[in-house]
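Hello again,

I reread your note about wanting to compare the complex against the isolated chains. To keep things tidy I'm splitting this into two emails, and this first one only covers the full assembly. Below are the input lines as submitted, including protein chains and any nucleic acid or small-molecule components. They are followed by the predicted structure of everything together. The single-chain runs will come separately.
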Amino acid sequence: MRILAIAKKEAKIQLRYRIVWLNFALTPFFIISPWILTAKSFSVEFGEAVLIGSLMWYWLNQYFFGVQEAFEEEREEGTLVSIALSPISLLEFLTGKGLWMLVECVYITAVTMLIFWMLGISQALSLKMLLLYVVSGLYMFVFSILWGALILWFRRIGGINFIVQEVLGLTSGITADVSAYPKFIRFAAYAVPLTYTIKIGRMIFKGASLGDIIKDLGILTAVTIIYFIIGALMLKKAEQKLRIYGEWEAW
Amino acid sequence: MRFLYLAKASLLTAKRYKIDWYGNVLMPILGALPVIIAMWFGNKLGLLNFSSIIGTENLLEYYVLGIAYWNYIESVWSSIFALREHMRIGQLEELILTPLKPWEYILGWSFLSFALTTVSSLPLILIALLLNVQHLNIEKLILAILIFLISLIASFGFAFLIFGLTLVVKEGDEIVSLLGNAAPLLSGLYFPIAILPIPLRYLAYSLPFTWSLDLLRALLLSSKTILNIGSEIKVFLLLSFGYFTLGTVSYILLERKMRKRGIHGF
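Full-complex prediction:
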């Protein structure tokens, strides 16, 4: 229930700021549409593939910013130490924030899909695909715990958040198929969970069955769990370090 | 020259947090990379030659010029983030009480971003110009510089408008974020606006940056234009000075309104 209390607090704060929601509604479209429109100029099918990839990347984008702000904003406002003193673990704290981010991301994805549908851009906008984006987003949240731990550990690493996201997105093939990449990039691509969610999403869009995707789904789950374990351990370690050195509010 | 004190303060803070520099410098370049990779992949599949769409064979220069130009336009808007940060940390009232004028805040806070953009973009611009030296002459170069400077005036108009709005609705950073993400697409940073769906194309026509970018590429790379160059210059001048006037007048009115109502930081 403590996790729900955090999610509720986030909801109340976010609902207070209306322009944020306008930004949520329109910004994703403006960010990803150049990729989709470029791909669509080549072929409709390529445009669909890029739309699936970019919507999945956007979940990673939101979660990475979300877990970063979860720590940075509290630190900036001087309330991070209060969280440290509360009877809640940092993992629960991030999960509570993540629960609210799920609502935000569903809103973002649904509105973005609606805008593309209104412009007659894509077929990859069914309810089934929305569910797929949500499931892929949950994997992205688990993956983003590692980023949250790095933020707590290195403090100002948030300055390269967007770079990290872009590199992860490009490596995972948001606007291409990773099989066309040079060998060394492909090697890196298969270490990123987003690569598998995009691949599976595109396969399902083309009508693949559970049997066709089971192998990739298994690898995706295994890779994500590994990142989660590393992230959770780093989070714990960073917390211990902050408690020992008393650096909760050090900026 | 009081704005230089603000610029110095920004520089000292930025020196303290060096990692942010990499983010600021690389962000626009990384923003265009997914489009470039999509084109690379599309060409690899042999689907289409994209140069027929953008109107020039010089793809690299086309993007480099667009990115470098956009970095400067957004530099001016970065001042809004500084204003928002001062609101968040409870310093807005003190700022409003200082003898600084709004344009000094905008200039002072965007100075660092401007300097960083120059450092990061100048090599890109020089490469683009050198690769196209055969298309260049002194008249074209002077006209391009004038268009660039006038489009900065238009950018100031937007900054004034958002500055005033931030005092009223607080969430100026969200407005800048939305505008900063929408304008590159609508202004043809990634490809000519002819490729956009029709409703977006009309929005694009209403932005001065659409015309300035199209003119700059036409002058420096001899790419296709939306209208003829003479007509484009007229539309561009009208929009640029129109937005500047709208921005300054709206700021004066919004600030007056907020001073009467009482300014609250957050």
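For quick reference: Chain B has a mean pLDDT of 80.

B.
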